[in-house]
Every structure is written in structure tokens, then in C-alpha cells.
Amino acid sequence: MSDFSGMEDLLQDFLVEAGDLLSGVDNKLVDLERAPDDKGLLNDIFRGFHTIKGGAGFLNAAELVTLCHLTENLFDLLRNGELVVTPEIMDVILSSTGSVRDMFGYLEQGVQPPAADPHLIEDLRRAIAGELSQPSSSAPAPAPAAAPVAVAPAPAPAPVLSGDGLDWNELLEAVTGAPASAPAAAPVLQAVPAPAPAPAPVVMHQSDAELASKSPEEVIKAAVGRRASDRPGASGPVGRRDTEKTRDNSIRVDTSRLDQVLNLSGEIGLTKNRLNALRSDILNGRSDTETLHALDLAVSQLDLLVSDLQNAVMKTRMQPIGRLFQKYPRIARDLARNLGKDVELVLSGEDTEIDKTMIEDLSDPIIHLIRNAVDHGVEETQERLANGKPEKSIVRLEARQEGDHIVILVADDGRGMNAEKLRAKAVEKGLITDEEANTMDERQSYNLVFLPGFSMASQVSDVSGRGVGMDVVRTNIQKLNGSIDIRSSMGKGTTFIISLPLTLAILPVLLVRLGDQPFAVPLSMVREILPIEPAEVQEVGGRATMVVRGEVLPIMPLSTLLGWEQNQTPEYGVLMQSAEQSFILAIDSFAGREDAVIKSLDDFRPKGVAGVTTLSNGQIVLILDMKELLGAMGDTRGVSRRVLLAHLELPALAA
């Protein structure tokens, strides 16, 4: 039985509020370390801890009250000027906030938290007595036994779609209920069973006396503890976020936005009544001009109201990105201290709103980029001073809205990237050939860091060197229909630019056709539409290409990507651009542009299909994942001119 029987609602309210307070305290502590004489910061921190202690006392969480009370006493001495903020005292305080966060994990599970690490309690008492010059270096006591975790049964694995399984024709028939219009030459769909989610371990924060002995990866794991407010009422303990864990399905919505939805719903109800009355009039034989005009006005009003309602509902999904950003200053501080660097993380644009479903998926990529900036981008102190730079490095994390996209920047003022060295390292590792390296410009050279297995580190460490971090970053961003780009200047720093759609629920798409079969491709990748003239098709390196404003672009027929036979001449090309490359997608015709409401395919995850959508005429079409389709081809440089001209049914030119 839960230790909080009958107090569940009160407990969840406490976890949400206290989680936000604790995250704010962590950020203010990082600021306090840079401005130790700021009494306003100390007062804010004191009040936050006092509020947490009061709520814990009401819940009879005695061990949490004890820890908060000791830490509060230390804050009181600091704000009264009896003690001075030192790095050693700050280490103990941050260790205390980490232990408080761990205790929230037990409360989330409905059990009382155990006592804090006795070495942490001892360090707090020594700090209060003014005896702390260095934190206790004695071996930590064994962590208390973890509270029981309810483990959900593993989900049934998704069916595997391989060469003998579902092909494009069968997929289209299964989704649309109608036979496909083109014969499939080769199946391209595959899926793998989803692994059962493993419960995350409880991350126990030991005294930061051992901070210097921890690896950077251990520091990140300790600092990135998930806030209690992220998943109120969750059954799992607080710890590092696991992408396989059950997502938080709750969301905070401003009441004014709900009021707007309610008002629009009422307006739609009135318009519906008006349409019902007009329908009755028409069925009773009234078809005069006035009645038809009234019907037209009512339909137009309904269309406007439904659009407004859709926008209002979408806004309820939007959350300030500051809720994601607020945990990063602590991560950057701990990692920089571990590496012996002086780094300040500057946040900007925290009020920028982003779809709630993206926030969890963005957490790990941004952690990777911040870690990369602190570990690789920022120079050692001696190197910075020798180059005439300030001793303190600045890493900037910024968010802003540009049109229908959210742009996130992670920038450092470090050494920058050397394109020539990147190309040489990629050749050395066998990731590219000498010929490919010689044709790369700076932008393409920077993007080499995203290749699986690429790393500039001379040796593998806990924080870098295996060549997997940046590959994961790009993969996760692409899953959000976003892109990532790099800008760098030698000696001045590097900026990673993430561009994401405002929401994942609605995707602007371009409808293209192969024969009579429509497909949807993301409009964000479309640069322009152009005709394919056989006389303009040139062969470069054995590949069919076209020159567009001086840029040589490979031509890739959509039929080739899908493994279909080409039954008619592809007359048009869609100039597509991703973060890695640009190419021309050859198609038969267009069916228009729509804002697609994406519906996932729950029973299987076919490669190359992002989901399905229903068009305005009721037809169901597949939304293609162009990046996966190109990856499935293995060679994305295009097809030969002979093959393409054969598709164009021009054998004389192909000869």
C-alpha cells in the first residue's frame, strides 16, 4: 500500500510545484557561483528551498525535511554574510539539490524517501560550522535500497517486414483499400521488433566531493535528472531520460486558450444549427436565391470557425521551450568543472513555444550538442589566453521562431572546425574516398561529423571518441522532420542550427503522382518545381544530372526509390534539399499542396513511410520519408543517364 494513501492529489501537486522550484534553484545556483555577492539570488534560493521544505513537512517526508532544513541553514548563513560562497560550498549545495531530486523519485512512486547520504549530511554540517575547505573525501556509504518500481509487461513486438513480407502494393491496398496503380518491382519496407522498455535506475547523487574523480559521462548522468514536473504521478524513479520510457501524456494549458476553444466550439454549434435549419428549408422545396446565399454564408463561416478552432487546439499543444532549457545550465556547469574549464551557458528565447511532443525528443540531442561544445569546441584556459581570448568561454543556447519553423542554436566561441582536417580524418577512417573529399566544400566537410563512426578524438574517453553522439543527434532531429546545419569559423567558434516545424501534428506536403497513384512528400524539403527536358539531362560520373543555376544536381526518379517500373514519361522534377544533399526527384505529375494531418501506422513501421493522411476528397495517401528512402537505396547520387533516358522513352538519345 502506498505511504500516501488518500493524499495522491496533494502529492502530485507538490511534485509539480516542487519540481519547478528545484529546477529554478539549480539555475540560480549556477548564476550565484558567477555572482556570489548577489543577495537577491540568495534570497530567491532560500525562499525556494523553504517552500519545498514546507510541502515535504506537510507530507511527513521526514528525511526530505531534514536535508532541506540543513541546506536552508547554510543558505541563511550565506545570505547573512556569515559565510562566503566558495567552489567547495557550491559543490556541497549542488549535491544536496541532486539528492532532493532523487527523493522526489521515491515520492513519485508513493513511498517515503530514505535518508540522504551520510557523507553529504556531514559535509553540510561542516559547511554550516565554517569548517569546509575541501569536501569529505571518504568513501561514500552504500546507496539506500531503491524503492520498488512497477514494471509494465513488454509490448508485443511489431511484425517484421522483409523481402518476403509486405511490399508497396500490399501496403497501399492495406491502407487505401484499393489496388495500387503500378506494379512493384522490389519491396523496400522493413521493420524490427521494438525492444521492451527497461526501467531506468535511480541516480543517487553522492557528495560532489568526488566530482573531480567522476567521468564527464557520469557527471552528465547525475546532472540530467528528470524534473518531477515532467511526469507527475509516474511509476518510475527519477533518473536519466530513456527514450523507451512511457511518455508524459499530461500538459499544462493556459486557461485563456481553453476559453478560446470553448468560445469557438459554441460558435460552431450555432453555425451547425443554422445549417440544419437551411437544410430543412431546402428539403422542403425552398431553393430561391436568398436561401442559397444564406447557405453559402453559413458554409463559409463554418470553414472559418473550424480553421480558427484547429489553430486554437494546436496552440494548446505548445509549451515554452524554457521548460526544456532550464536543466542545461547545471549540466554545462558540472561538465565544465569536471574538465577544468570555465564555461558559462547563456540562454535566450526561453519563451519561444514548441509542440509538447517534441520537447522530450529534443532533450538528448541538445545535451549532446552542449557536451560537444564544452568538451571539443571550447579550448583549454591556457590556449584561450594564448590566443588573446577571455578565460571564460561562452556557450549560447538560443531558440526563436522563424515563420512556421522553430530555430534552435547551440553556439560556442571556441576553436572552430578545420574543414581540411575533417576531410582527412574521414578518408583515414574509410568513410569517404579521396575523390569525394576533393569535391567537398566547407559546408559538406562540416557535415562529415554526422557520419556514423566519425570522430576527431585521438582516443576514446567516457565523453567522446566513439563517433556515435553526433550521428544520434542528426537521426533524432530528422525523426522530428527537422534539419541540422553547421556554421563554423576557425578561431572564432562553431554554431549548430536546428530547424524544426512548429508542430508534428500537421505537416505541409506536396502531392506528387506516379501514374494515378498519389504520394505526399514534406514541403519543407521542396525548393522548387521544374520541367525535365531530355536535352538538359547530362551525364556526370556515370550519373544523370541537370544543371540548375550553375549547380549540378543528380536526378532520382521516385519510381526507382519505390522499386516500381516506370510506365510513363516523368515530365517534372522536384528540387529537394535536405541537410546533407540536394537532388531532383523525377515524377509523373502533381496533385497539389495540402496541410496533412499525420496518422501513424500503428501495426507496423515500414521503412520509407512517415505515416498516412486523408485528402480533402477522402482519398488516403502515404506520406513518404524521403531520408529513409534515400538511405535504403544505399547510393543517393542518382541513376545513369542511359537508364533515365530509357525511363523518358527516348531510346535514340539513350543510344
Automatic annotation (TrEMBL):
> Which keywords accompany this UniProt record?
Kinase, Phosphoprotein, Transferase, Two-component regulatory system
Q: Which residues form the Histidine kinase domain?
A: 263-504
Q: Gene3D superfamilies, from UniProt?
A: Histidine kinase CheA-like, homodimeric domain, Histidine kinase-like ATPase, C-terminal domain, HPT domain, SH3 Domains
**Which reaction is recorded as catalysed by this protein?**
ATP + protein L-histidine = ADP + protein N-phospho-L-histidine
Where does this protein have coiled-coil stretches? none
Where Phosphohistidine occurs, residue numbers?
50
Q: Give the region (Disordered) as residue ranges.
A: 224-251
> Which branch of life, at top level?
Bacteria
EC class: transferase
EC numbers listed for it are: 2.7.13.3
Start and end of every HPt domain?
3-107
**Domain spans labelled CheW-like:** 506-635
Q: Where is the composition biased (Basic and acidic residues)?
A: 239-251
Query: What protein name does the entry list?
Result: histidine kinase
Q: Which gene encodes it?
A: cheA
